[in-house]
Amino acid sequence: MLLVDFSVSALQAKILELKLKLEVYADVGADVRDKAELLVRERRLKRENERLIHQIKRLGNIERKERMRYFEMDANRLFAQKDSEIERLKREVAMLKDTEASLMLDLDNTGSALEELQEQNAKLISLQKENDEGHIKMMNDRIIATQLQVKIKEEMAHLESQVNNLTRQIAALQCEKESQNEALRLALETIGVKTKENVYA
Fold first, then answer.
1. pTM of the predicted model, to two decimals?
2. What is the number of domains present in the chain?
3. C-alpha distances in Å from residue 51, one per residue of 4, 12, 20, 44, 180
């Protein structure tokens, strides 16, 4: 396009030069110039002027076509880039959904195990109260129950820690999913804006 601009400028300068020559010939007196030769030169300069004007118009049409072709190529490149970005975001959102579902399943399983341990703990406490058949047996039962309670409490603490970790992971994944959805929305809006700009262009 720089070459086209340069050619148009050069042609315009040539036209100006020819116009100046015509004015010079028009100012020369009849006693100094040959009228027939002047008329021939004048016609030749007019033809040259018309030819240059036609060439300027042709170059202007070429310039418009080149500009439209450049805009079209740039728009196609932008569309391809945004389509690729949208597909990538869709894949990431799908992966996040799968991961979230897996973590929710783990959370449910961990919660069920915690409930079972709580039931076992309640049964052991009830059993401890019911088994009062003798001091030795009672002490033995208490020792066993105490050991089991300690073990259950440790397992419960471990499971509660796992539940807390899974809950934090799910919250983080939810934030990331919302961020990806926002990026997808912005990408779609950008394509919509670019499409409108290209239509109005």
1. 0.33
2. 1
3. 17, 12, 17, 10, 60
